Amino acid sequence: LEDVLSVLSYSLRPLSRNDQVMFLKNYWCNIQGFRIKEKFESYANELLDEVLLTISDKNKEFTGIPLQTKMLIEAFLEKIETFYDQFNKNESNISIILDLMNLYRAFVVSKYKRHLLEKQILDLSKSGSEYDTLFASFEKKYSLLALCILFHEEDFILFLIEEELETIKLLKRQIQEGKENSGFISHIVAAKPIFIHFSFAEYFAAHFYSKNIKRKEVTKFFCHQVYGNEHNLTSIFFDEMVTADKHTCKMHIAVLNNDIEKVKQLLSNAEKAKDFINAADKV
Q1: What is the pLDDT of residues 231-275, one digit of tens each?
Q2: Contacts of 145 (CB under 8 A, 6+ apart)
Q3: Which end of the chain has fewer CB atoms surrounding its CB within 10 Å, N or C?
């Protein structure tokens, strides 16, 4: 093609670590309007290391994609403002606390809204409840698709109902035909949807479990095959999702925080375990 068209070919490569740091640094500085500092670069490197470590991204594929790096910047905008205030006060030992669930939530919402705008599906400035309905449907569909990549069919048929299994078949067909594409799945291989990054599949799978954990078969499979095992990131997402409700998951929160006294207090104040332990706590 180079000879026929008389043009040079170009190949797209993921951003290198230096590219990622420069992207983070320049974008933040342009938004905030302050000058680049040496410590600012250190912060960017520390943030990238924390993200890659948490999601087990040894190949650095996640932040190698410019759009995802941009979403990371947007998610940490408030924290970088705090960091810069501390920098100006000459405070040291600035740590990064990675709120994984909200970080991914921000990624998913941002990417889905871009999809709606690009496809002109909805005017987000006038959407209201219509957007909420669309987003809830999107989350439900992709939560089912995520189970396909994490587990074999003989596994997920143990806890999915017939309607959900039929929905999965329909969604796979729509993806192959190009009718379903919100930007999170690149293609289908051997009947399995391939997410743009495996951690997104784990996020959506955790969403499914958090919404359906009260179902007996779902609880059984999750406890024996998912929670605390090789699906560590799914477990982390699940914990953060269910403990967002601090009123109904008191025991779950106490256990995660290793708060022995709180656990004892909850046990002593309850006449029956079922009075305070919900399905999430039983996990």
Answers
A1: 678 888 888 888 766 555 666 556 555 556 665 666 666 555 544
A2: 168, 171, 172, 185, 193, 201, 204
A3: N
